[in-house]
Design a protein that fits this description.
35% helix; mainly alpha; 2 helices; single chain
């Protein structure tokens, strides 16, 4: 059984623009850059005195421990 050639010329009109259906199309909208989410965990072994220092610094500056460590790493990194 042989296959016949099938032409789509009459079905596809490349000259017209798509009709507005109200349904958002994939890739049509302006996407904002997604903010980096905190979903990684890290366990750090430290001396109890260092732990107390970290907790007191976080409390003193009214930031979370994660924010405190991110700030320290960024300052260390330069």
């Amino acid at each position: 059984m042989s296959k016949r050639a099938f032409s789509l010329d009459g079905m596809i009109d490349t000259e017209t623009s798509p009709k507005a259906t109200g349904v958002p199309q994939r890739g049509a909208g302006n996407k904002q850059a997604e903010t980096e989410r905190r979903n990684d965990n890290m366990n750090i072994k430290m001396k109890p005195s260092t732990r107390q220092t970290v907790l007191s610094l976080a409390d003193k500056h009214q930031v979370s421990i994660a924010d405190l460590f991110e700030d320290m790493v960024n300052k260390y990194k330069g």
